[in-house]
Structure formats: C-alpha cells, structure tokens
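One-letter codes give the sequence; the fold follows as tokens. Both lines appear below.
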Amino acid sequence: MRPRCQLAGLRRSPDREPLVASSPIPVDARPPQFIDSHAHLADPAFAADQDAVVGAARSAGAVAIVCIGESRRAAAGAAALAARFPGVVYATAGVHPYDAATYDAERDRAWIGAALDAGAVAIGECGLDYYHEGHAPPAIQRATLRDQLALAAARARPVIVHTRAAEADTLAMLRDAGTAGVVGVLHCYTGSHALAEAALAEGWYISFSGVVTFARWADDALIRLVPEERLLVETDAPYLAPVPVRGRRNEPQYARHTLARLATVRGVEPDRLGTLVTGNARRFLGLATPVAGDV
C-alpha cells in the first residue's frame, strides 16, 4: 500500500501508524450524517471485510462513500464496490501522480473514459507530488495531470486532486482548469491559504481529513477560511485515522470524528455541518438526491 495524501510536515508513515483492523465503534442512535468524499476501499487493506466496513460506516452516519480509483486496478475495484452498494458507494477513476511515469495518454484516457461511461462520478485521484524523489519528474507529472484535466473538461466531470510540495504548479494548472470549466477538489488539504483561496475562486472545493485532529495540526484558520458551501470531509482510508482512533486502520466510519473537529473549529453543531458537507458532496459529484430514510 502506498501513501496517497499530501501532508506537508504531517506526513503519515505506515511504519509509525499500523493499519490495524477495528470493530465498529458504538455511536448515537441518530449520528450526524456525512459523505466520506475520499476513501480507498479497493485497497488490499479492506480485502477481507469490505461489506463490514460499509455497514459500519452506514451505522456511523455515512450517507455515501466515494471509493477512489487512483489506478486501473483500483478503479476496477471501486466500480465493483459501487455495483455491490448502489446509491451508497460511488467510484472514481484516474491516475495518481506516483504512477505518472507509466502514464500513456491513449491507453489511460481510454480506460478512464470507459469507467466514466460505466458510472464513475469523477476523474482522480490525480495531481502533483514533488515531495519524494524517485517518482516521476515534475514535467511528466504535469503532463499527466494536464491530460486528465483536459479529459475532465471534455467530459464535463469533476476532478479529485492531490497536491504536495507542488503549490506553484498546482495553482497554475487549477486556474487553467477553472478557465476550461473544470470543477475539482483539493483533497486531504493541508496546504497554504493562498492556494486554498485560489481554488475557491475557481469554484473548487476543499476537503479535510483526520489530519485536522492530530496534535501537530496548527492551522484552524484554514478550516475557517473555507466557505460552508465548499467544504468536504474525508478519511483517505485506510490511512490517517483520526484522533481518537489513531493507530488503527482508518475507515469511512471514522469520518465522524473529523466532522466533529471541523464543527468545533467552525463553531457549528455537527448535525448542521454534516448536512452541509453531505449536500456539498452531492452537488460536487452530481450524486442522486437522497430519498426519505436515506440515513
């Protein structure tokens, strides 16, 4: 399993944070609702208990889970999960910047397009990550992201963007994408206020993960900067389990802890914020309107 989230100085390490399976945590009879806008349920960490993980998330208040297909294999797994849990799990398809070195525009645009035709709700996870040497050179990462943004524009689909140690290039490319009418989200965001403000100016969304619950988190002003109509919540499961479940395998059910932290920082009730982020995710991804009794 490879780490997927940009964290600046808060990067998680699988060596320090073992992915330990866990049982559902007891929750209130009517917990705040949410949509986990970014979870890697097709990851091998969930191979043995996907059904239980989805069930635990539903019990904890999850209206839906967006299963990220950051590679062809993961996208196929995400699509299979979406077929098993219609209206609850939604799939995406794209190529992560860690895999940019092997990106082939003709081949990869074809399977991403086919995934969209089959029901994938967004392109991604794609983006730029210059933090670690050994991945594709920045120029290749930019070309890979540019191609997926062009596909998003052509297909009028949203994008899910990862950015780490690449703010200047991310800023330039999201502005170009915004000009082309592409709407996206900066997922698991821990970057600068300037980049967040630029993304918001282009109509993009900002998603926060369990990182905001960590002791080393020190930017509550960033949480307050995002307008309520552009805010999303995510787990990035199986990574980045929030306090108070640090050290366990992260799961969509734990998004409720991040939601509670965001609500505290923003000075609103978790129920209200849960309703807002759920509506935001539905609007961003074009998900179906819930029916009575959805949660």
